[in-house]
Every structure is written in structure tokens, then in C-alpha cells.
């Protein structure tokens, strides 16, 4: 039997690393990103993994969720051993105070970071509601959703919303038979394009710039591959979902 995985933001960074680590003959993997990753396709072919890559813009979340609904209807869902949705995609708009932020950038950050996970999760849960197999939703959150930061209002708000949406979702799923296990998980600090953007910002605009630069200088950043390993290991924990909001750096 096969495990079904749906992953957003899989073309680079930790998302790509997770996709690479999910390549397996036992897995069917759907990746949703704006750009393809040809290396991932080669790896899937070598690993005999059924892989689809959808080149879609998650800022148009309703269209993507509609397509996901139709696609799930074509699958023999009861034949899978489990079904998992990983909402990983996120956007950092230009680092600036809210008053200096472009409206279209703010809207995109909120649509990709919060609206898309909510709509995709709704589509996924509705399509799999009658199944008896394990169902999981993993929302990739951030420490910035749990503490405020100047010049990062949209990103922080999207991640804070993601956390609280997941708390509410956990309450919904706890009320039904075979409810999905859900978690909003902060993956730690990772050496990705996002970190480069933060430590390259103008300190006059972004007062936390020096702290992010120090993380890099002191070697405190995880690689994308290391972070992906930790996140996927958390997903496989027997107590996954008991904490609707968690951090990979927490030890239990």
C-alpha cells in the first residue's frame, strides 16, 4: 500500500529538502509550487516514486483548492495507507514598516501564508472525511508567529494566524470519528533565502537585522536538509497532533 503526501512550496529550501526525503516507492507525492524542480523529477524517477508537480500560484488559493478537490476525487483514497497534507509555502514581503509596505505584497503574504493553508486543508479534510486511514495536516509555522517583530507585520500575522487556525482545527477534528491529527510546527532557524533576506535588510528599517546576522556568523542555522529531517521525524511521532502548536526544538 502507498502513503499519499501533498506538499506546498516544494521547489526550494526546506520544502525541496522535504520533497527529496519523501521520495520513496511507498509514497505518492504531489508538490504544489510556482516553479518546477527538474532535479526532484529525476530523483523521483530513480526512486520509483509517483510524483506530480503542479505549477500554481498559491495566492490564488481558491483556484488551487478547487483543483486539489477535483484531483482527490480521481484517486482511490481508500487504497492508501495514510494521507498527509504539509502546508509549507510562505512569503516574506519587502522588509518595511506597515506604513511603507506595498498593498499587493501584504495581500500576497497573507494569501499564501494563511488563506491557502486554510483552503487547502478544508479541501483535503472534506475529500478524506469518510476514510478510516490515518490523516494528518502539518502546517509549517515560525517562531515569528509567536513573537512580534518590527517591519515584519504581514509575515508574523500570517504565522500567528496559522497557529491559531490549527488550534481551532484540532478542536474540530477531535469531535469526529477518525479526525485528522494536526500540528502547526516551527522548524527552527534555517539557512534559506528567507534568512538571507532578513540579515541583508537595512538596520535602520529592520532593528532585528544584527540578531539574524549573528545567527549566521555563530553557526546557529540549520541546513534545509537538517530542518527537513527534524520536521518529517516530528510528523512520524506517535504523539503527533497532541500539541496543536509546537516547535522542533522542544524536547518531550
Summarize the structure.
This protein is α/β, with parallel strands linked by helices. It contains 8 helices and 7 strands. Strands 3-2-1-4-5-6-7 form a 7-stranded parallel β-sheet, sandwiched between helices.
Widest sheet: strand order?
3-2-1-4-5-6-7
Please tell me how large the radius of gyration is.
18 Å
In the CATH hierarchy, the third-tier topology is known as Rossmann fold
**What is the number of beta strands?**
7
Number of structural units classed as domains: 1
Rounded mean pLDDT is 92
Query: Which CATH first-tier class would you pick?
Result: Alpha Beta
Strand content: 15-25%
The end-to-end span amounts to 31 Å
- Helices, by number, come to 8
Q: How would you classify the helix and strand content by structural class?
A: alpha/beta
CATH superfamily: NAD(P)-binding Rossmann-like Domain
Task: Flag low-confidence runs.
Answer: none
Characterize the biggest β-sheet: 7 strands, parallel
Helix content: 40-55%
Elements, N to C (H/E): EHEHEHEHEHEHHHE
CATH architecture: 3-Layer(aba) Sandwich
Identify the overall geometry. Answer: globular
Would you give an account of this structure?
By secondary structure, the protein is of the alpha/beta class. The protein has one domain: NAD(P)-binding Rossmann-like Domain (Rossmann fold), CATH 3.40.50.720. The protein has 8 helices and 7 strands. The protein has helices at 13-22, 38-46, 61-73, 103-128, 153-174, 193-199, 209-217, 224-235, and strands at residues 2-8, 27-33, 50-55, 80-87, 135-140, 181-186, 245-247. A 7-stranded parallel sheet has the order 3-2-1-4-5-6-7, sandwiched between helices. Helix 1 crosses helix 8 and helix 4 packs parallel to helix 5 (153-174). The longest helix has 26 residues, at 103-128. The chain is globular and about 55 Å long. The two termini are 31 Å apart.
Amino acid at each position: 500500500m502507498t502513503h499519499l503526501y501533498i506538499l506546498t512550496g516544494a521547489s526550494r529550501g526546506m520544502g525541496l529538502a522535504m520533497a527529496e526525503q519523501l521520495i520513496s516507492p511507498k509514497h505518492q507525492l504531489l508538490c504544489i509550487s510556482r516553479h518546477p524542480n527538474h532535479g526532484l523529477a529525476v530523483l523521483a524517477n530513480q526512486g520509483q516514486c509517483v510524483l506530480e508537480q503542479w505549477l500554481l500560484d498559491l495566492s490564488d488559493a481558491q483556484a488551487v483548492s478547487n483543483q486539489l478537490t477535483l484531483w482527490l476525487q480521481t484517486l482511490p483514497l481508500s487504497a492508501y495507507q495514510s494521507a498527509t497534507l504539509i502546508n509549507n509555502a510562505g512569503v516574506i514581503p519587502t522588509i518595511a514598516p506597515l506604513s511603507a509596505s506595498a498593498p499587493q505584497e501584504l495581500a500576497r503574504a497573507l494569501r499564501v501564508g494563511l488563506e491557502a493553508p486554510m483552503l487547502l486543508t478544508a479541501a483535503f479534510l472534506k475529500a478524506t472525511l469518510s476514510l478510516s486511514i490515518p490523516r494528518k495536516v502539518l502546517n509549517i509555522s515560525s517562531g515569528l508567529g509567536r513573537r512580534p517583530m518590527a517591519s515584519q507585520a504581514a509575515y508574523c500575522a500570517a504565522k500567528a494566524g496559522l497557529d491559531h487556525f490549527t488550534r481551532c482545527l484540532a478542536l474540530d477534528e477531535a469531535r469526529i470519528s477518525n479526525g485528522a491529527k494536526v500540528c502547526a510546527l516551527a522548524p527552527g532557524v534555517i539557512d534559506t533565502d528567507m534568512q538571507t533576506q532578513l540579515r541583508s535588510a537595512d538596520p535602520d528599517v529592520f532593528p532585528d537585522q544584527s540578531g539574524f546576522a549573528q545567527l549566521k556568523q555563530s553557526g546557529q542555522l540549520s541546513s534545509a536538509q537538517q530542518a527537513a529531517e527534524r520536521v518529517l521525524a516530528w510528523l512520524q511521532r506517535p504523539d503527533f497532533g497532541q500539541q496543536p502548536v509546537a516547535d522542533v526544538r522542544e524536547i518531550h
